[in-house]
Amino acid sequence: MTNPTENSVFEDAGMADGAVSSPLPALLLGTYAPKIDAKGRVALPAKFRSQLGQGCVLARGQERCIYLLPFGEFRRIAAQIQRTSLSNKAARNYLRVFLSGAVDQEPDKQGRVILPSILRDYAHIDKDIVIIGVGTRAEIWNKADWDAYLAEQEDGYSDIADDVLPEVSF
Fold first, then answer.
1. For every residue of 16-42, which 3-state class applies, written as one string?
2. Which residues form the SpoVT-AbrB domain (predicted)?
3. What gap in Å lies between CA 119 and CA 66, rounded to an integer?
4. What per-residue confidence (pLDDT) applies to 31?
5. Is residue 42 included in any domain, yes or no?
6. Alpha carbons 27 and 135: distance in angstroms, whole number
7. In a domain, 62, yes or no
């Protein structure tokens, strides 16, 4: 589908002022359209496999997609949520929904992971899917839902840049 950008440019990036920082995590980038088989397995993009190391966690994402997170990123997010006070009802609710659907996966020798039925149902995953790299995570979408979402966002993409990226210039 799309020819993804080379990730190595981002893996060793230092700070803008020339100072050396700890290596940044590899970025998951690009758009892919793999097939899902009858057993609910999907072959992950080859570029992602090396970046996932020993495996990943699949979890409910926003806008009815499935998050695909390297183990380290999943642990970071879960720890961040868990640091929120138990008296915070919104944090409790989010943690319940996020973790109750999460499942750890180790890709098989063909680089496939199983998308559990609970997550396929949540994300309306049937036959045609799209996997998009979103930096430190990837998202698995029903292709029709992704196409509709992207079309909806296109018009506002330029308009929101100043709000979302106030310090970044292109």
1. CCCCCCCCCCCCECCEECCEECCCCEE
2. 31-73, 102-145
3. 7
4. 97
5. yes
6. 5
7. yes
Residue 50 belongs to what domain range? 26-156
CA proximity to 131, closest of 66, 84, 76, 70: 66
The CATH number assigned to the domain holding 125 equals 3.40.1550.20
Domain count, the chain: 1
Assess if residue 97 is contained within a domain: yes
The DSSP secondary structure of the chain, one letter per residue, reads ---PPPTHHHHT---TTS---SPPPPPB--EE--BB-TTSEEEPPHHHHHHHTT-EEEEE-GGG-EEEEEHHHHHHHHHHHHTS-TT-HHHHHHHHHHHHT-EEE---TTSEEE--HHHHHHTT-SSBEEEEE-BSSEEEEEHHHHHHHHHHHHHHHHHHHHHH-TT---
Predicted confidence at residue 87, as pLDDT, reads: 85
What angle do the packed helices 89-100 and 71-82 form, to 10 degrees?
Answer: 150
What is the predicted pLDDT for the residue at 91? 84
Averages of pLDDT over runs of 10 residues in the chain (170 residues) are 40 41 75 95 91 90 96 90 83 89 94 96 96 96 96 81 63
Residue 6 domain-assigned (yes or no): no
